[in-house]
Amino acid sequence: MLLLWLAASVATWVPARWTAQDPQSLELLAGTPINCLLMEKVSPEFLAAASSRGLAVLLTLRPEADLEAVLHSAVHAGLSGLVLEGAFEQAQRERARRALAQTGLPLIELPPRAHLRLDRSGPILGSYQGLWPGIRVSEKGVARAAPTGSPWLETNTGFLRYLRAATDAPIWIANRPPAGPTSMERYLAAVADAAIIGARWVVALDPDFDGRLQRREAKALAAWKRIAEHLKFYEDHPEWRNWKPSGQLAIIIDGTSGALLANGIVDMIAVRHVPLRVVPRQRLSQQALQGARIIVSVDPAALDEAAKQLLRSFTRAGATLLSGPPGWKFPAPTVDQITLDEKGIESLGEIWREVNSVLGRRNLGARLFNVAGMLSHLLASPDGAQLVLHLANFTSYPVENITVHLPGSYTRARLLAPGEPPRELALQQIEEGVAIEIERVSSCAALLLDCKR
Amino acid sequence: MTRRELLALLGGGAYAAPARSAPVAIVRARGYEQGLEAAVAGLFDQLGGLGRLVKGKTVTIKLNLTGSPASRFEGRPLGSTHYVHPRLVGAVVHAMGRAGARRVRLVESCWATGGPMEEFLLDCGWPVRALATAAPQVEFENTNARGKGRRYVRLKTPPGAWIYPAYDLNEAYEQTDVFVSLAKLKNHATCGVTLSLKNSFGITPASIYGDDAGLEEPNENPTTGRAAVFHFGKRGPSRSAPQEFDPQSSRDPGYRVPRIVAELVAARPVDLAVIDGIETVTGGEGPWIDGLRFVQPHLLIGGLNPVATDAVAMAVMGYDPQAVRGTPPFHRADNTLKLAEALGVGSADLRQIEVRGLSIEQARFPFPA
Lengths: 453, 369
Known about the structure:
The complex is a heterodimer. Chain A is an alpha/beta fold.
């Protein structure tokens, strides 16, 4: 019973790293949805103040910490739980799990991607490793192009899509901003990059921003308010976390064929705004592929006979199966490396040409126009009554005049965006379904559609 | 240098038709919002009015949409930097309609795609529905492949041409009474300037002249640019199209690209040149060029001859339209205007060109040397 209550409670935690030791700093959290602080050191006074505000405080430990000593004292300190962040040895992790299991306190593990165990049931699934979301800029300040010709987007969504599909646990990604000053837009992108997939970014500020915020400088306060507004936007719609990715393209992939890497096949397809359902090889089923018109199997050699039989049944029913040659399979990440090397990026270009030739210009759930520099994610409600198309703008400027073409019939379209009133949008009938024009997206938005039943 | 080249560069010689002189107009336009339609109307009035040119005719407007719509400079709208602006396109189309044009067709060989032009324009953030209703009959054609047409048409280059005897193009370039080059006032990394002449480089289909063009037949799904065929001559166009006169000729882009442009303009003459200099960039043709700078010259330049129009535009930019290779802006290339002049397309001699509206001095907006 306690464990169930604990799991439910942890699932609602909206986490942030917190460096200030002053209880007064907690005033900055008023009006924000943040209710869980990850701290590397914490005083009894601070804990008491946090507790009085209903905030959970987690002590974050790194592999070099004296685990025994901390485990002993943590239980009595009034902490809400512990976080193991980093590449802990297996024996250390087991010891911590056993120690905390006796107390009822949650243990949250944020390992490197290479150490993720999807078959374990912890209160949270997450990693500290992630890219800092945004458009990759070359040394000369020019946006770099991906093999697809679009600006190269640094995103964790491919990794998160895979985790989301592979597990039912709440997901955290605890990547930190670069050391230098970072623009507010990049923080908003970090929030959206995780939230559109149904995950949570563990809010972390660069030291410059953090310092200015603690000194209550006006510009920092305004940026902090905007970040909180974006967190709240997604927390106000918890139902979206239970909605499933929609679209007629399914990709079968797992951790051994590149799903844990950044900038991989899933990211490459997503940057082209093709609605995509990630199907972990271990969760491959008739239901997981339902409605798929194109199936990409990244590592067909890893499929067992039953899985092959299932794919054959889909192709007999008219679906197109694209089976990757050995070169499509990328290795699992190492502890220090989560991105592709130059050779891998070259391979991606070749893969994209093949995938693109199969995709053509078909509408596989949505077609989006004028969305370079953005990410999107299409989700359907469990009853099929609604769709939400998430839009995250990674550029430093508002994107104007976006067009969305959707197959099917709809009775209503609304655009929701942080800090803005909902906007009703016109539905124009076109050959492939409906067209919807979106005048402007500043940082992120959600296009909510009521389906005609 | 071959005999053909020598004769061509002698300023006409035996092969060149007499140079034409035509008026060029310059007007001030404050921006793409208020007053734009009046500025466009004023430009065409200075040229004697559109009616006599377009009434009852099919007008084909070649837009200048360089590179991928995903490539943006400083996040600005494409029309404010290296593309022509959609509001200007709308104003020109509307003016054509009001002047009695029977049909207005917007064309461009859209970067790396053979898909519908309407979708490419949506990717640019353009108001396609509004454009489609800016005149009684507006059509869109992506000429990067065969498009909606049934065939390619072969347009011959005149005597004196250097690289190709003819070009195979989307049939929209033949099925028109009036051909308009709607270009941008900007530099070009290879050719020095991108104006109404250089805009015609984009009438060629990548299905035939692209890096991934079919070896024998056109590739109707092109996904690349034309550098291998045109800039560097590393490969030929699809064998279904005319091949080079001399595959041993120079492979230098500064030699080849200006000549190809001059040949294209001679093969598909431009009846009206309009140059969008309201907002633009200096230093290159697109964001992939280092050192670009956003500027607002607030100018529209138009003329009935593209060489004369580009000569005036160059003078407004602070350049000598007679400049030779190695001098600004032709640092790495031959002068496209002079080459077009050699093929009899028009005159780049400012003394022979009547400038109406603003004078060159009044309009002067220096671009980088």
